[in-house]
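Data deposition worksheet. Section B asks for the primary sequence of the deposited chain exactly as it was used as input, without tags or linkers unless they were present during the calculation. Section C holds the resulting structure in token form. Section D is free text for depositor observations; keep each observation to a single sentence. Incomplete worksheets are returned to the depositor.
Section A, Depositor: J.P.
Section B:
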Amino acid sequence: MKQRMATRRELMRLAGAGGAIAAGLGEVRAWGQAGAKYRVDVEHPRLLLPQRRARLIRREQERDTMRWSQFKTLVEGGTKFPEPGFALATYYMASGNQERGRQAVEWALGAGSDLRQLAIVFDWCQLLMSKEELGRLEAKLRAGLAKEAGTGPGVGTGVEAWRSRLFAAVALAGHGADVLSKTVEGLFEGWWEGTIAAKLKAGEMVFQPQEHFALYELFHVMRDNLDLDLRESAAKYFATLPVFHILAHYPAPYPGSEKRVADSDHEGTWGAGPAGGGVEPGGGAGDGGL
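Section C:
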């Protein structure tokens, strides 16, 4: 079939339409930047389980995998979890079991005080709460965030504290007064760029292995909701961190009937960092690196 060449008038019309679209996008972009410095326009759930990951966890239940079967046995058996809000909300997200989801909500509205778990329940269990319950949990989250953002004894300054503040701020985005901008400014521009990034580039071992879980959670939420990848500020360190994390896990001693099967020189250590003779991300045992 013979193709017709576009006339100059048609090309000009297309160019004009393209310019109008570009101008419109510019207006939308400007509108997005006119308010708060940092914004979250993602619907709930936002924390750790955006829609694409939520589908993966539901498949665990659908396929009745071994780890799902074990988790289900614990939940349905009434096991008292160290993190009940997180465990019950996870079960609800995977199975759709509203009874367990409501138990997570009741924990959050009642005895729950851990900011990270409160934020997760608020984010994941929105559809299970009445307007009055949402208001109560929002107020509880804001109070917890204000307390964590203060100064003085008992206020955390490490990665776990910043992770929990970020969770609360992201969960609350779009609900009442903005707390996201101040939280992310403090985390990204103050704590990370002002303190952590320089230390990582200098080769310091800033994070202990037991802090890695909180660090990974923080990375996920920052990237999923704010399109900020903190790893870019110290690429070499984070390129080797996964290997270091695996090597840092020294097997736990096994309690036998007569003796503990473990090397007494290393018992109870992570084998990490210069003091333990382990391997540091970005560096290594000695000067060889990984």
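Section D:
The domain at 40-178 is CATH 1.50.10.100 (Glycosyltransferase).
The radius of gyration is 24 Å.
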